[in-house]
Amino acid sequence: MTSRNAKEHDTLLAQLKSVLSERTEAAIAARVVLRDAVCAYVAVEHARGVPLTTVIQTVKDILRSAENGSVKASGELAVQLIDWCVEFHGGATRAGPVLVS
Prior knowledge:
Layout: H1 3-47, H2 52-66, H3 76-88
C-alpha cells in the first residue's frame, strides 16, 4: 500500500469509526427511551390489573404497526422490552413465564 493509499485508508477508517460510534450511541439512547416508555405502560397496565399477555400483545401490535414495511417486522422486540421491564421490577409484574407468539 502506498503512502497516499494508507493515508486515505486511515482517513476513511477514522470517518467510519466516528459514524459508527455516533449511530450506536443514538440507537442506544433511542432504545432506552423506548424501553422506559414500555416499562411505564407495563406498570400502569399492571396496576389496572391487565394480564401481561394482553399488555405484550398490545405492545407487539404497536411495534408491528411502527415497523410496517420493515424487512424484519416481528414481535421479538416487544417481548424483549417487556422482559426487560419485568426483570427491572424484579418479577413484580408477572408470576411465571409467558409464552406469546
